[in-house]
Amino acid sequence: MGIRIEKRSLLWTIILDNPEVKNAVDNSTAAALADAFRDFETDEGARVSILWGDHGCFCSGANLKAIHNGFGNRLEKTGDGPMGPTRMMLSKPVIAAIAGYAVAGGLELALWCDLRVVEEDAIFGVFNRRWGVPLIDGGTVRLPRLIGMSRALDMILTGRPVTAKEAFEIGLANRIVKKGESKKEAEKLAKTIAEFPQICLQEDRMSVYEQFDYDLGKSLRNEFSHGLISLQRAGEGIKRFIEGEGRHGKF
User: How many other C-beta atoms can be found within 10 angstroms of the C-beta atom of residue 44?
Assistant: First the structure.
């Protein structure tokens, strides 16, 4: 299956675990990833998930040997994506904890996540450029939305490696951490996010994603609709502020 799952209180950590192929994803692993994130979505006690690759590598992409041997990833226009969960719009955030390589389909998995915590020696790249294998699972859509068209085209057309430092500078990485620390730091970040009032957090997050589908006017109206849902539940938080909690920007 190639994955395992750790559940701690409000957090799930979904782990790619196939060191022989640097956590490359074949059809069965993709299905297992998709099922794991479906279970996370429906678990009322789970608030944030982390996606991490064990053995010092996030994900080297689709398993090309499996494709060559006739056990390739799912290639249907509807349903799960070739890498598994990449067509899902979850209501809860996912953080990628990235060590080593996040390349080809592994890059697409990282782009699907809301945030990316990246070890200092991590490498991103469209390495599949060398073999004529396309970005087919969100790479040409999510990458320019995150870092802009010019930078995205530079990565997509050249296939060159992008270091953690450059990834942070262009907005692809959100945090850089020491080698071996991405899982721990991502879980720490996830715990912080999980402790916020969740309805407001989820509604604001959804407005961010949905605005890509609308013009400015409709985006603003959609944001307002999400905000009204949150305001119906904001009384407790307002009361805590009035009573003195969180002054001077304290979290």
Answer: 5
Give the relative orientation of helices 139-147 and 105-112 as an angle to the nearest 10 degrees. 60
pTM over 0.90: yes
Element (H, E) at 50: strand 48-53
Strands 11-16 and 3-8: antiparallel
pLDDT tens digits in sequence order for the chain, 251 residues long: 689 999 998 999 999 999 999 999 999 999 999 999 999 999 999 999 999 999 999 999 988 888 867 777 877 888 899 999 999 999 999 999 999 999 999 999 999 999 999 999 999 999 999 999 999 999 999 999 999 999 999 999 999 999 999 999 999 999 999 999 999 999 999 999 999 999 999 999 999 999 999 999 999 999 999 999 988 876 676 666 666 666 666 77
144 burial type by CB count under 10 A (0-12 exposed, 13-18 middle, 19+ buried): middle
Question: How far apart are the C-alpha atoms of 243 and 251, rounded to whole Å?
Answer: 15
Token pair in block for residue 67: 């494709």
Evaluate whether 109 touches 51 at the Cβ level (below 8 Å): yes
Task: Give the position of tokens 């794991």.
Answer: 36
**DSSP codes, 85-143:** STT---SS-EEEEE-SEEETHHHHHHHHSSEEEEETT-EEE-GGGGGT----SSHHHHH
Q: Do residues 177 and 158 lie in contact, with contact meaning Cβ atoms separated by under 8 Å?
A: no
CB atoms within 10 A of CB 40: 21
Task: Please report where in the chains the tokens 């009035």 appear, as a residue.
Answer: 242
